[in-house]
Amino acid sequence: MSQLPHQPAEVSVPTSADVARLAGVSRATVSYVLNNNAAVRISDPTRRRVREAALQLGYVPHAAARSLRAGHSRMVLLPSGHIPGGPPHQYFFEELQSGLRRLDYTVVQYGSVGLTADEAATAWAELRPVAVVVPPGITLTPHGTGILTRSGAKAVITLGPEPVPGAHGLVMDQRRVGGSAVEHLLARGRRHIGVVMPQEPCRASFSEPRLAGARRAAESAGARVRPLPLRYEEESAQQLAARWPELGLDAVFAYNDEYAMLMMRALQDAGVAVPADTAVIGADDSLIGRLLRPRLSTVRMELALPQPMAETIDRMVQNPGGPTVHHDLLRTSAVHRESS
């Protein structure tokens, strides 16, 4: 006869009163210290004693209760998804999260796969975040922005290629990447330029604007641009390289360094000399691209923030209701190496 496993006795949850007794202070002092209330002066030794007592007891403030007292949460919601950018974007999000934690915000990542844009915004709003930071590749509509602000979000910020009406926009204009790459190729006498376009749908929010920027730069010089769909696999690159003579291209700008390396190897295997027959340039300035032979030319990207992003969000939260702010963050420059 089977038996239910032994059930442990109910665990006693430590309270702020327990912390106050152990630290020898009032419950109000515990609240001031653990909620980082700067309006009340408390000595550093007392702060250390309260924090040590809380750590010893395993006490954690109740986020919902704190939000109720303050009238809003300290939660910044970061919808999660595939962020197709390279190292600068990954570094940006790491710095954002650590900066927000230093300012006593709780960063929550929220997956919304399978939801429409407005369904996702409704799901985010249910958590009552004080701010929402929407990364590139995730769609936010003006209606979704309204849902979030009416639910109490004091700041809604988008980081995509285009601003969204009603939301603050920190724009990463990917057209600059394509423009810088093609201008570099044009300066080296190339006039028939292929643009490698990933066939993976999750990359479209970056690849389409990069193509638009490449076209704009080519048209101003009377050059030709041809999109080249490519899956991220060797067979797809080999099939494209086999068609190279009929395409009549003397240069290729690939979506990023990974696709550029994939394409360059396929061209070399097909007997196309790089850069003599075809110049190649990627984007992201990855380390491995510098280790290739020939070394890979690339577009370097930097994010020019007027101040740390976490401080920008904190200012928006502290001063809601003002006009929406738009900044163009992306700075690009072509790096000339042997492949072009």
Write structural notes for this entry:
The protein is α/β, with parallel strands linked by helices. It is 42% helix and 18% strand. The strands form 3 sheets. It has a 6-stranded parallel beta sheet with strand order 2-1-3-4-5-11. Strands 7-6-8-9 form a 4-stranded parallel beta sheet, sandwiched between helices. Strand 1, helix 5 (87-102) and strand 2 (106-111) form a beta-alpha-beta unit. Helix 1 (16-23) packs across helix 2 (27-34), helix 6 (117-126) packs parallel to helix 7 (142-150) and helix 8 runs parallel beside helix 9 (204-220). The termini are far apart. The model has no long low-confidence stretch (mean pLDDT 88).
Fraction in beta strands: 15-25%
User: For the CA atoms, what is the radius of gyration?
Assistant: 26 Å
Strand order of the largest sheet: 2-1-3-4-5-11
SSE order: HHHHEHEHEHEEHEHEHHEHEHEHEE
Instruction: Output the structural class.
Output: alpha/beta
Low-confidence stretches: none
Total helical elements? 14
Provide the residue-averaged pLDDT.
88
**Overall form:** elongated
Features:
six-stranded parallel sheet; 18% strand; elongated; alpha/beta; 340 residues; four-stranded parallel sheet; 12 strands
How are the elements arranged and paired?
Elements: H1 16-23, H2 27-34, H3 44-57, H4 63-70, E1 75-80, H5 87-102, E2 106-111, H6 117-126, E3 131-134, H7 142-150, E4 155-158, E5 168-171, H8 175-187, E6 192-198, H9 204-220, E7 224-230, H10 234-242, H11 244-247, E8 251-254, H12 257-269, E9 279-281, H13 287-291, E10 298-303, H14 309-318, E11 326-328, E12 330-335
Parallel strand pairs: 1-2, 1-3, 3-4, 4-5, 5-11, 6-7, 6-8, 8-9
Antiparallel strand pairs: 10-12
